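W.,

You were right to be curious about this one. When I first looked at the sequence I had no strong expectations either way, so I just let the prediction run and decided to look at it fresh. Below is the sequence, 419 residues in total, followed by the output.
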Amino acid sequence: MAKEKPIRSGNRKEFVRTNVPAAERVAGAVILGLLVWIGLTIAIKGRKFDPNLYTVRADSLASTAAAVEGKSQTLAAEAPAPAAAETPAVTATVTATAPATMPAETTGEATGETTGETTSPAATPAAASDGGDGNGEAAPAAPAAPALPSIPMEIALPGIKPMSPTEFYNSDNLYEKIDGRAPAYQGFNVVQLRSRTFTVDAAPGSYVDVYEYRFDTPVDAFGMYAIERDPKAAPITFAPDGYSGEMGYFFRQGAVYVQVMASDQKPETLALTKTIAENRAKELPVDDHGLAGRRRLPSDGMVEGSVTYVPEDAQGQSAFKDVFQAKYKAGTVELPFFIMVAAPDDAAKAWQSFRDFCGQFGKTEPLPDVSGGKIFRAQVFGKWKVVYLRAGELGGVVDATDTDAARAFVEKYLRGEIK
């Protein structure tokens, strides 16, 4: 048998070095030593923080300080300022003179003077187109409204003790206390939240939270109260606008929206919760400025908890501002009824504007005057409206399904038969 030849790997020579020169051995040792030294150096340096490594060199930013030429740089400066009418209105913005002092419980004084006019930021002097004094120079910024003083909430009633100091929040940091609900309060111009917790002596472990949200006007306070009101809750008698829930009392007094809430439903806790609520209603100043429309809403037949406040654009009309409305039961029919109180000329213009609007989208019909009130009836999109105008007050029934019931309700109101 022929002897097998060994398999070779291509042209590679079968060679093994058995004698490495001394120079190569020295070079390898040097390289290996350098690698060890580098590793140790990195490990040692890494344990110590050198702040100089991260210091910003100011001179390296000098090139960025120069003005950038080009359209993108000058666009904002060259663009004309937007007209006041283009500035979006803020819902429920009611102008008011900022109070110099907070009406504390001990003074009994009302909070400043209010104008009762709904405006938007575009209508303020700060929104003037030239932004200056007419000579091309910028006018000084308007001074910020003074912050309300932080007067501690002291409630002198037997059976309670303060659990913690009084907390204060303004419009900017209100989210820290009521995160998620703050934007709604800011929309109604909240000025300050003052809150404090009181322990109940007769019920160890129980406490009562008292929140007092102060707004710029009583109208805004009512607007916020109306949004959060529980329509199924029971009304209260010690405040003009308020109700009681299972564990607390909620009401408006002047420009303050008050919430008094119990920690539990123990009889002792609930009793003191009501006592505290009555105390706040008594101590806070009474101020119903701007709420004339609310006071004129009749109580006969009113659906409990149905009163709402619309600061502007009620019924889709820009002339309808500071409108109060509620629902009424007239037999088996439910009628939405609204009232707006304004200067006689403004009320007349709003009434005529609404009549023209109804004529564009439906049919209108004048009705005989009742007790000095002018009335028209309109059918728009299958629903009936009966609207009156009398001495700076306009109102009526809207979106009714029964035209006869709507007319009868308005005429009875004008004759004083519904109060």
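Here's what jumped out at me. DSSP finds nine helices and 17 strands in the chain. And, maybe more interesting for your project: Residues 203 and 266 are 8 Å apart (CA to CA).

Coffee later to discuss?

I.
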